[in-house]
Amino acid sequence: MPTKIPYITHMSQYRRSYVPGGTFFLTLVTYCRTPLFSEPENISHLRTAVAKIRTEKPFEILGAVILPDHIHFLWTLPSDDSDYSQRVSRLKVLFTRLLRGKKSLPQNVSASRRKHRESNVWQRRFWEHTICNEADLARHLDYIHYNPVKHGLVSCPHLWEYSSFHKWVKKGKYQADWACSCCGKKPPLPDFAHMVFGESG
Q1: What Gene3D superfamilies does this protein's entry cite (predicted)?
Q2: Which H, E and C letters describe 22-45, residue by residue?
Q3: Is 103 helix (H, G, I), strand (E, B) or coil?
Q4: How far apart are CA 112 and CA 97, in angstroms?
Q5: Active site residue 162
Q6: Which partner from 21, 22, 44, 157 sits 20 to 30 angstroms from 110, CA to CA?
Q7: Which residue is catalytic, options 31, 84, 146, 162?
Q8: Element (H, E) at 130
Q9: What is the pLDDT of residue 54?
Q10: If you average pLDDT over every residue of the chain, what do you get?
């Protein structure tokens, strides 16, 4: 895993970091925060698109959570490859094509987005952070798995279906009741105060 990668804290100074074999935290947001992923069919489309990309340009998915209007991923690329941007672009294209097939694209695409050959499905940019060490990886995994609770979608991480939390519980890396408030529990909550994210949160 790459080390000594600077943590960029101001978007105005932000430059993407490309590290061969790196692990990257990625956030993709839908256009105007349209809750596309409130529909299970669209989650299926997303999974199809991701599976297709992995056959074209392999990578490992360490963590993921799908929320109604945005997605968080942790991807690890092959040792000789740093091009997560191309994979993200391909993901956006494939998912949009699957929507088009269902005639589900939003209407009235703006002139600016037509100029950039974009539809009203995704925000133009995406957020990326290069994981710099094991502690940084653990923090971002916690962030991913707590995100549905943070956004008020569920009360506990284990209640959100579309999350890698369940996979990590099976691996024994998380307890099933991590950050769980069921039955009146008051668990210690993860602290993300010193982490910096894109505008989706």
Answers
A1: Transposase IS200-like
A2: CEEEEEEEEHHHCCHHHCHHHHHH
A3: coil
A4: 20
A5: yes
A6: 44
A7: 162
A8: strand 127-130
A9: 98
A10: 85
Query: Where do we find the tokens 């947001």?
Result: 29
- 11-184 has which fold? Alpha-Beta Plaits (3.30.70)
At 68 the three-state DSSP class reads: coil
Domain boundaries along the sequence of the chain: 11-184
Report residue 67 as tokens: 């929320």
Condensed to tens digits (0 to 9), the pLDDT of residues 40-71 reads 999 999 999 999 999 999 999 999 999 999 99
User: Distance from first CA to last CA of the chain, Å, rounded?
Assistant: 25
Q: Phi-psi bin for 172: left (phi > 0), alpha (psi -120 to 50), beta? A: left
Q: Could you report the per-residue pLDDT of 117-158, keeping only the tens digit for each?
A: 456 899 988 999 999 999 999 999 999 999 999 999 999 999
Length of the chain: 201
